[in-house]
């Protein structure tokens, strides 16, 4: 398995990295958004077993499919909320939608 790909997917667990991607305008690029959609295969075996933090990684990958989340992750408040609550913060964001 490609080490860089694994590292990138794992980094999606980090809300501060998601904020960085948003600040670089990557989350508004259709090609990058399509790539994030393609990465959904990490939800299934055999790839799933390679994730160190499957909960937040997969939850953030799922949230990144939503345009509203991609727009709002630029907010330091949302980033801190996700960081403080880890996976619970992601679930709370979904409920507030």
Folded structure, characterized:
There is one protein chain. By secondary structure, the chain is mainly α. The chain has one domain (3-96): Arc Repressor Mutant, subunit A (Orthogonal Bundle). It has 7 helices and no strands.
Features:
activator; nucleus; Arc Repressor Mutant, subunit A; 7 helices; transcription; mainly alpha; 97 residues
Brief overview:
The chain is mainly α and 97 residues long. The chain is built from 7 helices and no strands. The mean pLDDT is 88.
**Tally of structural domains:** 1
Structural class: mainly alpha
Shape: globular
Largest sheet: none
How many helical stretches? 7
The CATH architecture name reads Orthogonal Bundle
How are the elements arranged and paired?
Elements: H1 3-11, H2 15-23, H3 30-38, H4 54-63, H5 67-72, H6 76-85, H7 87-96
């Amino acid at each position: 398995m490609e080490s860089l790909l694994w590292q990138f997917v794992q980094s999606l667990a980090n809300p501060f990295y998601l904020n960085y991607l948003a600040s670089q305008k990557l989350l508004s690029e259709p090609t990058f958004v399509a790539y994030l959609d393609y990465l959904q295969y990490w939800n299934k075996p055999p790839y799933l077993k390679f994730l160190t933090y499957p909960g937040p990684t997969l939850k953030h990958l799922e949230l990144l499919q939503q345009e509203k989340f991609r727009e709002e992750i630029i907010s330091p408040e949302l980033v801190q909320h996700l960081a403080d609550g880890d996976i619970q913060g992601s679930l709370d964001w979904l409920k507030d939608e």
